[in-house]
Amino acid sequence: MNRICSLLNIQYPIIQGGMIWCSGWKLASAVSNAGGLGLIGSGSMNPDLLHEHITQCKKATSHPFGVNIPLLFSHAEAFIHICIEEKVPVVFTSAGNPAKYTALLKQNGIKVVHVVANVRGALKCQETGVDAIVAEGFEAGGHNGKEETTTLVLIPMVKKAVTIPVIAAGGIATGRGMLAAFALGAEGVQIGSRFAASEESSAHIAFKQMIVNAKDGDTQLCLKKLVGVRLLKNKFYNEVEKLELAGASVEELSALLGRGRAQKGMFEGDTEEGELEIGQVSGIISEILPAGKIVKNIISEYNEALEEIIQQKFKL
Q: Do 174 and 43 sit in the same domain of this protein?
């Protein structure tokens, strides 16, 4: 039995990433209803809004779902207590120290998964007592690890270092990508960009269209002096690149970024001035689909690809 499926009580080891401005209750419940684990992305919410999304998600699905909480956000502690109060089955934490809330969550019967970008972070998670790790490679969208280690390299290194289950993230949008991650040692996959371009995603349709129109080379990791983030190239990105090439300071970059850039781009649909966070894998996403169809397609392609590999088995 797959350890991620057993741990999270789901049919398929597919976790929908808790993406800022994309992952509300409609997307989370749709993925959970399709057999994966849907995540509500709390990063763009306040406590009252998170409470509302959890309430609506409970009404929309009888299957397990979770909440992603970036620990560096000011509302993180309030979000932790809301998840405990609402008896959310699983919490995915990121962007912070996993030791801060893991024990408290587990004492209240909540499974804890933490996102890392290096082996050091994975070992810290295991020592802290998290139930599983998301190892996220350089290809991923949104905020990214400073090491720039690719998924192909990161997953086997983390798998070798820990005994708890590893979930692969970064550059995965298809069944073949899922199979590759499993071959590297993962027992589950966390998928963001593919679900950002789903019908149930709360992202603006203009942003979704930018995702399906993207080609290879249309994203770039930038703003490393602040918190590195992978963006689709647009007018705002060009302004960032110009400043960075000129050796801009942290203060200058912060002034350009300002407040609400991600909301402007991803949620409000300003594709020129907004911050458009997405992964490299956007280059192979070609249509907006229902989340349930995405899950079905991934599993179908995974099984087909697995059969192909079995038929190519080499004898020693």
A: yes
Q: Tell me the percentage of the chain whose pLDDT exceeds 70.
A: 100
Domain limits at 272? Answer: 215-281
Q: How many domains does the chain have?
A: 2
Same domain, 139 and 197: yes
Q: How would you list the strands of the sheet with 142-143, edge to edge?
A: 142-143, 229-232, 219-222
Q: Which stretches does DSSP call E strand in the chain? A: 14-16, 38-41, 65-70, 90-94, 111-116, 132-136, 142-143, 166-169, 188-191, 219-222, 229-232
Dihedral sign for Cα atoms in the order 80, 83, 87, 89: negative
Q: How far apart are CA 59 and CA 67, in angstroms?
A: 16
Residue 157 lies in a domain: yes
Q: Is 232 helix (H, G, I), strand (E, B) or coil?
A: strand
Other beta carbons within 10 Å of 214: 24
The string of pLDDT tens digits covering residues 112-133 is 999 999 999 999 999 999 999 9
Instruction: Report if pTM > 0.85.
Output: yes
Between strands 229-232 and 219-222, the pairing is: antiparallel
Residue 316 lies in a domain: no
Are 42 and 68 in contact by the 8 Å Cβ rule? The answer is: yes
Nearest to 138 by CA among 283, 284, 281, 302: 281
The verdict on residue 207 lying in a domain is no
